[in-house]
Amino acid sequence: MSSANAFYPIGTPGVPWGEAEKAEWLARQVRHRSYAEDVLARVDALRQRFDVEQYGQLDYAGERYPLYAIRNRGWRDGLPTVLVTGGVHGYETSGVHGALQFVERHGGDYEGRANLLVVPCVSPWAYERIHRWNMHAIDPNRSFRENSPAGESAALLQLVAPLRGRFVLHIDLHETTDSDESEFRPALAARDGKPFEPGEIPDGFYLVDDSENPQPAFQQAVIAAVEPVTHIAPADANGQIIGSEVVAPGVIRYPLQALGLCAGITGARYTTTTEVYPDSPRATPQQCNDAQVAAVRAAIGFALAHPAG
């Protein structure tokens, strides 16, 4: 197909959306699940063992979404600091639930060894609507930059800013889903007035390294830890995953900061974005959560064993 209009019902082919098209898009969004029940209740249950802080709030058309971060206790300036983020894209479910599962089961393991900061759901409005964008049709994961147009991104940047220079690791938990190809990429093309060019969804788990700061041994340690939990995505016929060269099994690279991606916000030596494939017939929702947890634990283990020189 030559245009996004063949796939997406909003807008005129070749013409970027204006306010009317964005309003039409917003009117189509439906709440499917509850941030309060699925996320905030689990965060509240962690307060006895961890420090929970509200770092911001989104106010969307009268709906208020408090934003929370979880810290392990016993923070010390001399310890390496680790950031785990999930739900930057709200529809990527295992990013949120994997982050929470990690804290619930393993968050206490690092007390006295690392300062652990976990933000399990960066984009709660999108989590409820199982969407990639926020209510303004903005992708938070292309918006981590100064004067960000996305409230989700701006709030996280403000949380992280005082700690820049202290992070040894940032792992950002994501999914690549079939709906990327059926809904979200066509919507992006329509929004921006560009033609939609069909792609291929990889079947399996993969990582996105930073092309400006590649850490191949670190990435491979994470892949090795995840492989017993869920299968690793193979390269396609062109030696690529989602249009990027596969530089090692299950690893591609992006310029994280230049693209405004979440994994580029800390300046940490070790950074990665996980990509779980929840639509595979070979993976259950629990396997997806477990894969995220395995990735986080392996990433922290490697970073603590190989501190910056």
List keywords for this structure.
single chain, hydrolase activity, acting on ester bonds, 309 residues, alpha/beta, metallocarboxypeptidase activity, 31% helix, two-stranded antiparallel ribbon, 8-stranded mixed sheet, Aminopeptidase, disordered N terminus
Apparent shape: globular
CATH C-level: Alpha Beta
State the helical fraction: 25-40%
- Taken together, the total number of domains comes to 1
**Biggest sheet, strands in spatial order?**
1-2-4-3-5-10-6-9
**In CATH terms, what is the architecture?**
3-Layer(aba) Sandwich
Rounded average pLDDT = 95
Distance between the termini: 51 Å
Q: Provide the CATH superfamily.
A: Zn peptidases
Question: What structural category arises from helix and sheet content?
Answer: alpha/beta
Family: Belongs to the peptidase M14 family.
Pfam families: AstE_AspA_cat
Keywords: Hydrolase, Metal-binding, Zinc
GO molecular function: hydrolase activity, acting on ester bonds; metallocarboxypeptidase activity; zinc ion binding
Tell me what you see in this structure.
With 309 residues, this protein is α/β, with parallel strands linked by helices. It has one domain (4-305): Aminopeptidase (3-Layer(aba) Sandwich). It has eight helices and ten strands. Helix 3 (93-106) crosses helix 8 (285-305) and helix 7 runs antiparallel to helix 8 (285-305). The chain starts with 18 loop residues before the first helix and ends with a helix. Residues 1-5 have low confidence and may be disordered.
Topology:
Blueprint: H1 19-27, H2 35-45, E1 51-60, E2 63-71, E3 81-86, H3 93-106, E4 115-119, H4 124-129, H5 151-160, E5 167-175, H6 178-192, E6 206-210, H7 216-226, E7 240-241, E8 244-245, E9 251-254, E10 270-276, H8 285-305
